Amino acid sequence: MVTMKDADGPAAAEAGGLVVGRTASLWQDAWHDLRHRWVFWWATAVLLLVGLMAAVPALFTDRGKNENCDPNLTRLPPGGEHPFGTDLAGCDYFAHVVHGARPTLLIGVAVTLFALLIAMVFGMLAGYYGGLLDTVVARITDVFFGLPFVLGATVILVAFPGHGIGAMTLVLALLGWTTMIRIMRAQVIAVRGADYVQAARLLGASDRRIMMRHILPNAIAPVIVVATLNVGNVISGEATLDFLGVGLQYPQVSWGLQLNLAQSYFVDHPHLLLFPAVFLSATVLSFLMLGDAVRDALDPKLR
Question: Side-chain half-sphere of 216: how many Cα atoms within 13 Å?
């Protein structure tokens, strides 16, 4: 008989021996794959930087929003005490770029978390029970799926002026859950007939236990990938609404609002458009690249 001391895992398994070791899982395999991808680490580094800017802006600048502004120093080019120059009100532009990260990132993450929660609850229930509940959820999803994301948000926000970050989050969450709920429902339908689910049902497990312990862990991976990609899409949509003038309003600060204020001065003062555009693009691109990397790591066919 071949023992573990005489052979490695595969050899012992082939000879009929017992392989002793840590049980592999989908997420462990995905992490092992991700940590060897430079794209994952690049995107993580960028998002960590932006996250620190949003959470602790004092690490990067000692100026607050719209503080220490000098009307005599408007639209100065980058250099000296103002590495990113100054804006239309003579405020330090670097400080505004730093403070602009918080609302942009907050709205993107909050909207995605709300959409993910909706998808997990109603997608799970519709896919597991089927019948009338599934039909109602599917038809409501179709109705909201037919509403253009940016156009629908524009109409709602124009109808309710004076909105802030909370209203923006609510409106975008209302329109941004349809893709995730469809994927969650499809995954649950595919998993609910698996042998281990049937075994758990025969052993007397409740529906709640089956959904939480057996179906959700095996259905959530594609939804997590879409959620990661969705953060970048929401941030892009929020910036678009700010740029169109229907999103956040001055004296609030966001990258999209900075682009809106700078559009008329791009030729003579390109730095007003360049810096927020670079940070916005890098953030959106990082979320998209992170989502692609996670998708490739979770799908064995793409490895």
Answer: 16
Model's pTM, two decimal places?
0.83
Q: Which residue reads 């979770």 in tokens?
A: 298
Q: CA gyration radius for the chain?
A: 25
In-domain check, residue 293: yes
For the chain, the average pLDDT equals 84
CA 160 to chain centre: 26
CA separation for the pair 57, 47 (Å, rounded): 14
Which residue range(s) make up the domain with 95? 25-302
CATH of the domain at 90: 1.10.3720.10
**Cβ atoms of 289 and 42 closer than 8 Å:** yes
- 109 forms beta bridges with none
Number of domains in the chain: 1
Mean pLDDT across 5-25: 44
Structure tokens at 269: 């003062």
Domain-embedded: residue 8:
no
Residue-wise pLDDT for 42-72, tens only, equals 999 999 999 999 999 999 988 888 777 777 7
Asked if residue 30 belongs to a domain, the reply is yes
Residues 6+ apart with CB under 8 A from 135: none
Hey, what are 293's tokens?
Answer: 């990397």
Residues 6+ apart with CB under 8 A from 299: none
Half-sphere exposure for 69 (CA within 13 Å, toward CB): 18
14-23, 35-44, 111-120, 229-238: the lowest-pLDDT one: 14-23
